[in-house]
Write a structure and sequence with these properties.
Length: about 475
């Protein structure tokens, strides 16, 4: 069998060819890459030859060398920064930035742009957060694991969309849109949970300075600033202030995403007028019939047309489009590679339903919260919303199919692993590390079970009554 290459090297730079670009555009590719990174992380963390190297690399401090007249001065940047924190606190800020841009887009002119559109996904997302949190709390109340209630509340939008794509027309289009909107609303609630419940001690002075920078950025936007540099500079400063203020630094990405201008340089009428003018100029500048197209004056017209098309798309959309490949194919795989590497030192890690009076059962709480609580919470609150008339049932959808799709909401992965890394700060370090590792295993197991359960139910229901 001959392997088809999808990349090439040129002057030390990796380039995707047409096959590679086509593969990268498939939603399932991102899910496959994440699964590979999870498997690789588990292997690296447990194989005797790589276990110590893997953990040493993650704990390696990152320093900046300053060369002075008195010699070399090593500075940690920022305070206590190592490879693991670089990925979780800096690179994941970029992830949260793109999540913020996505939420903003949906709120501005997407599935959350009107009260009628937004009510059902928002109510369903609230139910999908509340019920898993209650199940987790019921299992772990009064134990060391009780502070991890936020772990089973999140839905991973990447994996959910990946599964829906693979299922094809077995799922009504309206339910695909609903689940996507629900995942976006779920992300918004998860961000609020992290900000309110999983931050450190708040330093109000630094937070006040960050607020002043944000207000200054808003002033830039109000004055019509369209260059990206002032927004990037503000984002970096706000990130540093958040990092030292006690609020988790990644949330600065969400805040700054909402400050990126969403108003294009040209409206529709301006675009149509300018486009018509330069297309007419192209015809006027047509040279001899045997002259190669485009000639030099026509190239100038085409560049003007390109600039007009560029200016018709707002900065928020352009930045999101530019960042998504880096987030999907670099940052999230690195996050999975860093956070899924659980050293399985005891078979107890796989005993999901074990319970200890002191430490509780983080595994059972997470597993039941994601696999059982998520679909029940989403479906129950959606049913109540439709009966009260504050939400509208997705078109061509039945309640059994709705529940089957809601099962996919139990795919927690990225956001659940992220919250797991922040939880259990109020217990002893060794106990906290054990709880986090058991939590990671439970998140992975619950996500797989939710994906399988949802896919099987959708397959069975679509076989009985094909979707329109």
């Amino acid at each position: 069998m001959r392997l088809i290459p999808f990349y090439s090297w040129s002057k030390g730079v990796l380039h995707l060819n047409s096959t590679g670009r086509k593969l990268a555009r498939h939603p399932w590719m991102q899910g496959l890459l994440l699964l590979i990174c999870v498997a690789l992380a588990l292997l690296l963390a447990n194989l005797p030859l790589t276990r110590d190297i893997y953990h040493e690399i993650l704990k390696t401090n990152i320093t900046i060398h300053l060369f002075t007249d008195d010699g070399v001065v090593d500075l940690l940047f920022p305070q206590d920064m190592n490879v693991e924190k670089l990925i979780n606190d800096i690179l994941m800020t970029v992830f949260f930035f793109t999540v913020g841009l996505e939420i903003k887009r949906e709120v501005t002119h997407g599935e959350l742009s009107s009260m009628k559109k937004a009510m059902l996904p928002m109510v369903a997302a609230f139910g999908g957060v509340l019920v898993p949190a209650l199940i987790y709390t019921a299992v772990n109340a009064g134990t060391a694991a009780s502070s991890g209630w936020g772990i089973p509340t999140a839905t991973d939008i990447a994996f959910a969309v990946c599964i829906l794509t693979l299922l094809g027309n077995r799922v009504p289009l309206s339910l695909k849109i609903f689940l996507t909107a629900l995942a976006v609303a779920d992300d918004l609630i998860a961000i609020l949970v992290v900000a309110i419940f999983y931050g450190g001690k708040i330093r109000l002075s630094l937070l006040a300075i960050a607020g002043a920078i944000i207000l200054l950025t808003l002033l830039f936007r109000r004055m019509g600033e369209r260059r990206i540099f002032p927004y990037l500079a503000s984002s970096f400063i706000v990130w540093a202030l958040f990092y030292y203020s006690g609020i988790h630094a990644t949330l600065s990405g969400v805040v700054m995403a909402f400050l990126i201008p969403a108003v294009p340089q040209y409206n529709k009428a301006q675009y149509m007028r300018k486009r018509s003018y330069y297309i007419a100029r192209l015809d006027e500048l047509d040279g001899a019939s045997n002259e190669k197209f485009p000639n030099t004056p026509q190239k100038m017209c085409l560049m003007k047309l390109e600039g007009i098309a560029h200016g018709t798309m707002d900065m928020s959309y352009r930045v999101e489009r530019a960042m998504l490949p880096w987030v999907n194919y670099l940052i999230m795989p690195l996050f999975a590679l860093t956070n899924a590497g659980v050293e399985i030192s005891s078979p107890e890690y796989f005993n999901i339903f074990s319970h200890d009076p002191q430490t509780g059962s983080v595994s059972m709480g997470i597993f039941l919260g994601l696999v059982v609580g998520k679909p029940i919470g989403i479906t129950l609150f959606s049913f109540i919303a439709t009966r009260l008339g504050i939400g509208e049932m997705p078109r061509d959808a039945s309640w059994p199919m709705f529940f089957a799709v809601a099962c996919l909401g139990g795919i927690g992965f990225t956001m659940s692993l992220f919250i797991d890394s922040l939880a259990f700060t109020d217990v002893a370090a060794h106990t906290a590390e054990t709880l986090r590792d058991m939590g990671k295993i439970a998140v992975l197991a619950a996500s797989v079970c939710s994906a399988v359960l949802g896919s099987v139910l959708i397959g069975l229901l679509s076989a009985r009554r094909p979707c329109k």
